[in-house]
């Protein structure tokens, strides 16, 4: 038993040393900051959702409007080296408002089966960790070519969504959900390598890089929630 634990520890140390050899100290430091900000933004999202579900604070439509304003603000209010705290506050506010908009869906799922939320959360977390490590351990820049393809797929899905508001095809809706999960998974790989590449080129915008990954994680989590709920409801019929 002790020998097995030692083997696991040795493999983990070799893995961490491999990452250390692959990436420069300033890149590792940047990634650490990005993941810490990502985690705290996810915590703000959880707080926003919990307050909405408990009916302690419900911003309603204002939350949706605020998310749009905040994400546009973060896009146009570029990092200048002096506005980090302001932009970080905007990101946390965006995470909180995103949780407020997610609250009604979570409340509905809780009324059906709360275990769905834990399953979707676990699936999202495991997928994010696995794909992030895969991107970091892969050949540097190997998946950057995915960027253009993924944007094209997102644009096509958005166009189909507009058409589906008229035709209301269940097949299109379900297809978009499943395709969306794979697209977000691919975005995690792409964004991870893109962040490393940008960092090496001098772009150390922690807030923007955390926002990119937050979009991927939140979109995947939302889609998994809907897919798992629909599956459960189909079994219950």
Describe the structure.
The protein is mainly α. The protein has one domain. Helix content is 85%, strand content 0%. The chain contains 8 helices and no strands. It has helices at residues 2-22, 25-53, 61-76, 84-112, 115-137, 146-167, 170-200, 206-236. The N and C termini lie far apart (48 Å).
Task: Offer a concise description of the structure.
The protein is mostly helical and 237 residues long. 85% of the residues lie in helices and 0% in strands. It is built from eight helices and no strands.
Distance between the termini: 48 Å
User: Gyration radius, to the nearest Å?
Assistant: 19 Å
Q: Which segments are poorly predicted (pLDDT under 50) over 5 or more consecutive residues?
A: none
Count all strands and give the number.
0
Q: Can you write the helix and strand succession as a string? A: HHHHHHHH
Described by strand count, sense and barrel closure, the largest sheet is: none
* Secondary-structure class: mainly alpha
Proportion of residues in extended strands: under 5%
Q: What is the domain tally?
A: 1
| Approximate shape | globular
Given the structure, what is the number of helices? Answer: 8
Topology, please?
Elements (H helix, E strand, L loop, with lengths): L1 H21 L2 H29 L7 H16 L7 H29 L2 H23 L8 H22 L2 H31 L5 H31 L1
Helix pairs in contact: 2-4, 2-7, 2-8, 3-4, 4-8, 5-7, 5-8, 6-7, 7-8
Please tag this protein with its features:
single chain; 237 residues; mainly alpha; 0% strand; Bax_inhibitor_1-related; apoptosis; Bax_inhbtr1_CS; membrane
């Amino acid at each position: 038993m002790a020998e097995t634990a030692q083997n696991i520890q040795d493999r983990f140390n070799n893995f961490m040393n491999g990452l250390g050899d692959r990436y420069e100290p300033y890149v590792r430091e940047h990634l650490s900051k990005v993941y810490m900000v990502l985690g705290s933004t996810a915590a703000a999202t959880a707080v926003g959702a919990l307050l909405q579900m408990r009916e302690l604070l419900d911003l309603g439509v204002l939350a949706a409007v605020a998310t749009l304003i905040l994400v546009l603000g973060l896009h146009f209010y570029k990092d200048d080296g002096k506005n980090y705290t302001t932009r970080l506050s905007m990101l946390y506010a965006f995470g909180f408002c995103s949780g407020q908009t997610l609250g009604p869906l979570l409340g509905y799922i809780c009324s059906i089966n709360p275990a769905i939320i834990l399953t979707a959360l676990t699936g999202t977390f495991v997928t994010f960790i696995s794909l992030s490590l895969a991107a970091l351990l892969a050949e540097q820049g190997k998946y950057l070519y995915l960027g253009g393809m993924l944007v094209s797929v997102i644009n096509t899905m958005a166009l189909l969504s507009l058409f589906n508001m008229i035709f209301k095809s269940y097949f299109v809706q379900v297809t978009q959900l499943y395709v969306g999960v794979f697209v977000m998974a691919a975005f995690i790989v792409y964004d991870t390598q893109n962040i490393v590449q940008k960092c090496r080129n001098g772009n150390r915008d922690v807030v923007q890089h955390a926002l990119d990954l937050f979009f991927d994680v939140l979109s995947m989590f939302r889609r998994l929630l809907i897919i798992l709920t629909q599956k459960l409801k189909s079994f219950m019929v």
